[in-house]
Amino acid sequence: MPFMRKEPPVPVPQGSKFCFKCSKVHLVEAFAVDNSKWDRRRPCCRSCDVARWSTYYAERMPQEVLQRRRRNWKATKARLETGLKREGSPHA
Ligand SMILES: [Zn+2]
After folding, report:
1. Going residue by residue through the chain (92 aa), what tens digit of pLDDT does each one get?
2. Cα 20 to middle of ligand 1, angstroms
3. Separation of 44 CA from ligand 1 center, angstroms?
4. CB neighbour class for 83 (10 Å; exposed up to 12, middle 13-18, buried from 19)
5. Residue 22 lies in a domain
């Protein structure tokens, strides 16, 4: 029995692929390689994959790691803001 593939609801040009997750057509390069799939590409685009993984990490990551990350971000943000203030002096 042939495997039925989901047909994209919009015309997809050669070299592109339809993402069923965000319902957009992207270049095949926007899809990560997956050799187990019929077209050797992930069924959803990289940005959808990233979104999925961030949710996964948000749910599974130990609180300690998240807290450390938040602290690092605060330090980075403070550094950026100081840098911006220094560079943002009026040139007039
Ligand atoms: Zn997508």
Report:
1. 556 777 899 999 999 999 999 999 999 999 999 999 988 999 999 999 988 888 877 777 777 777 888 899 899 899 888 887 766 556 65
2. 7
3. 5
4. exposed
5. yes
C-alpha 77 – ligand 1 centre gap (Å): 29
- 17 Cα to the center of ligand 1, angstroms: 10
User: What whole-number distance in Å separates Cα of residue 49 and Cα of residue 18?
Assistant: 14
CA distance 1 to 21: 27
pTM: 0.55
What is the CA(40)–ligand 1 centre distance, in A? 16
The answer to whether residue 26 is domain-embedded is yes
Instruction: Report the number of distinct structural domains present in the chain.
Output: 1
In-domain check, residue 36: yes
Domain of 38, in residue numbers: 16-83
